[in-house]
Amino acid sequence: MTDAQLLILLSTLSTGLILGAIFSLVAAGVTIVYGCVWLPNASNGQFFLLASLVAWTFTASLGWSSWLAAIAVIVLGIGLSYLLEWILIRRLYDTPNRNVAYFVVTLGMTQIMTGIFSLTYAKWSDQFSLPPVVDGISMLGPFPLSNNRLLVMVVSLFVLVALFALLRYHPYGRALRAVFQNREAAALRGVDVRSIYRLSFVLGSTIIFLGGILFALAYSFDLTVAWTMSITAFAIMIIGGPGSVIGALVVGMTFGFTQAIVSIFASPTAATFSYLGAMLVILLFRPSGLFKR
Amino acid sequence: MKLHSKTILGLFVLMALMLPLAASGNKFFAFVLGMTFISLLWATGMNLMYGYVGLMPLMFAGVAGVAGYAMVHFTRTLGWSFWLAMPVASLLAAAVGVALGLPSLRLKGFYFTLCSLVIQTVLTLAFIFFPTYTNGDTGINQVAPPDWFGGELTGLGMDMMLAVVAVAGVLFCAWLVKTPLGQRFVAIREDDVLAEGLGIQVVRCKIIAFFIVSLYAGIGGCFYAAYVGFISPRAYDVLVSMNIWLFVAFGGRATIAGPIIGTAILAPIPFLLQDLQAFKDILSGVLIIVVTLMMPGGIYGAYVAWRSRQAHVASDGDKVQEQRV
Amino acid sequence: MKLLDVNGLSKSFGGVAALRQVEGHSVVGETLGMIGPNGSGKTTFVNIVSGHVRPDMGSLTFDGIDIAGKNPHQLAAIGLCRTYQAVRVFSSLSTQQNIDNARLLLSHRGLDQAELSELLDWLKLDHVLGKSAGSLTLFEQRRLELLMRLVLKPKLIMLDEPVGGLAVTEVIEMIQLLKQLKARCSIFVIEHTMRVIKELADRVMVLIAGEKVADGPPLDILKNKRVVDEYLGAQHA
User: Fold this and answer.
1) Alpha-carbon torsion B64, B69, B72, B78, what sign?
2) Most CB within 10 Å of its CB: which of A27, A164, A173, C31?
3) Among B121, B277, B282, beta carbon nearest to A112
4) Which domains does chain A have, with CATH numbers?
């Protein structure tokens, strides 16, 4: 293998890993909230973008380091999630068939946020980026990988593993999965279902915010990432199986590598359109997705 | 229908046909009125699917677009009269609507909505990326008004025609929902498994519903093109579908009056707000959330509930219960 | 004259066999019963016969017509219908509208007003026509279910746990109603206790772990050693 080929391979691998991890994170966030609360969050891309944009505001306007901005956004994000849950989300907990209502509500939220973004950030810049957290470059053979991107890759994978561990081993995680499976049974076992709903919404949303920051740290972005991320996350959730975190992981990583490979030949939006097609196929032929919850 | 409702419907028809005369002095108001009539036709069709069958077809605007673009193609390239192109294009759109809806018939609730959203996205992409027929994102301008006895149908005459078409759409829907087919739609909405167990052919009824609703979308799409004179993928995208849905949900779904009320109040607003697209989006989004969380029955539903509380009797079975999402 | 005829019926879900080579039949005018513990395959059996689930193997005929793979609406059209374990009515619609929906199948070939009034009177539902079906008591809803099925002029009604959720006095009343129902239509009652079945059924099929282990009059079933040991012994039938 020539150096040039090795370069392309390693570049594709690293992009695939980073994108795959971020996709998986966001999709996991969406699927957790859907599986637990029956809330399909159509505005997940807007949440994703919101985190990136606010982090940019902190670094560009207030001159904060990316570290500080990231932490601030996460804290604010948690607060926002609680607020949303309190004002909007909890109103439908007792409604049967609430998934359509929630879907429509989140479509409304998408429109509101799109409008706000076009009145604000759209006027301030076309492209946004965050200053790197760490400087320098590491060499993987012939392939130069910025330490910043390496950090993002490591952190993303770490969060994914931590999320998985949380769901599998921690009591909160187990309670969450109990509600996933059968909320009446969980309630009978003494689980406070409503607070689990709240927890899962906050957890899911925070993961999405985190995904947004990590993405912004690794790449520069513009406002269109919102809808591409929404489509991608939904496609991953539907194909992987709604409510299945494993599905989100496997399909998310697959999509990440698909994107990385497609980007060599064509624009990334071509990949996004293929996700649409794949989602449609699954919806029509195997709506329960590839993995069980 | 109670005599009471027939009177109200009659009053509506009279008013609708007189409004174009009232607005004919002012071009701007006449245009808003014309657009409102087209929106009313669309909202009635959307209500049939969403209110009566219980499915939310977000690809509605895309189907309207298929008819719109086809109509323009037929009149421009093939030289057809609008009055031949419009029915043919609408039937074509209806066929497309059924074909696209067919595979998603087994899906329910949010899955159906999501699928229809994806189909709408695919249609919009098709409008953008097949420029030979659609001129892509640039759109097609100078679409001619309908031909009319040697001349063109514009101004007061066109507004009257739009009023007639909208009224016809409302009256047809009012009649349809009282027929056995309309009853079957409601049964399917309420519990399609039970409906099937009672001998109702659920799949067949859904296909018929898709066809009729797509006709509403298509006819509206043709008139839209001929009235505005300019079409582009934007005119038939997902935001349009959501808006029409909002007219229905806000006004009161599963009622005849609901779409009329919702359209009458909401349709003129974007024209009064003019260029502030972002504000329209925000307002739209807020209304969507408010309607879904706080007014599932819309304005008319809230009115019915208020009246029944006043009378201290349970709402009679004629109007469907509203506190349902 | 066989009405329902089932042979070699088998069904597995994900490798687990729910039904194994089940055979049985019902005769016109006879009341067939089926009992079995939870997980015995009763629900699967009912779901297959009522067209909600396709069998893997086996033959299924009704009134001489092959019904394997037919949809519920096709079955309703040839006279086979069912009620559900958890009562199922159009809750948001009025009782009258519920009945009207059931009349859609036969429309003008269905019951005339006199026959309908008689049913309403017998099932004591004539005074709740205007109320929403969701606001009726459970017993009233169960009776409404029966009425809606009778409107279909069926040849066989499958009753899936028809006394589920009813109070003790209501159960007694319901059994009386079902006894009267036998004169109007053949019925197939599925229950998990003998309490109801022994009063109604002429013959009972017992399913345990997906297999039919007994078939005969209720008194014989109650004396069947295997049935008593594996199933009834744990209950006061």
Assistant:
1) negative
2) A27
3) B282
4) 3-285 (1.10.3470)
CB nearest to C72's CB, from B187, B190, B196: B196
Residues of chain B with Cβ-Cβ distance to A108 below 8 Å are 284-289, 292
* Residues pairing with C204 in the sheet: C33, C216
What sign has the CA pseudo-torsion C11, C15, C18, C19? positive
Pairing state of beta strands C80-82 and B147-148?
Answer: unpaired
CB pair distance less than 8 Å for B286 and A108: yes
CATH code of the domain covering residue C63: 3.40.50.300
Chain B residues inside the 8 Å CB shell of C97: 317
Which of C52, C131, C152 is closest, CB to CB, to B198?
C152
Domain total for chain C?
Answer: 1
Measured between CA atoms, the residue of chain B closest to residue C99 is B198
**pLDDT digits (tens), chain B, 325 positions:** 445 677 878 888 888 888 888 888 888 889 999 999 999 999 999 999 999 999 999 999 999 999 999 999 999 999 999 999 999 999 999 999 999 888 888 887 888 999 999 999 989 988 988 888 888 888 888 888 888 887 888 888 899 999 999 999 999 999 999 999 999 999 999 999 999 999 999 999 999 999 999 999 999 999 999 999 999 999 999 999 999 999 999 999 999 999 999 999 999 988 887 777 788 889 999 999 999 998 888 999 888 888 888 876 554 444 444 433 3
- CA proximity to A148, closest of A219, A201, A206, A88: A219
Task: Say which amino acid occupies C100.
Answer: D
Q: Which residue of B has its CA nearest to C84?
A: B194
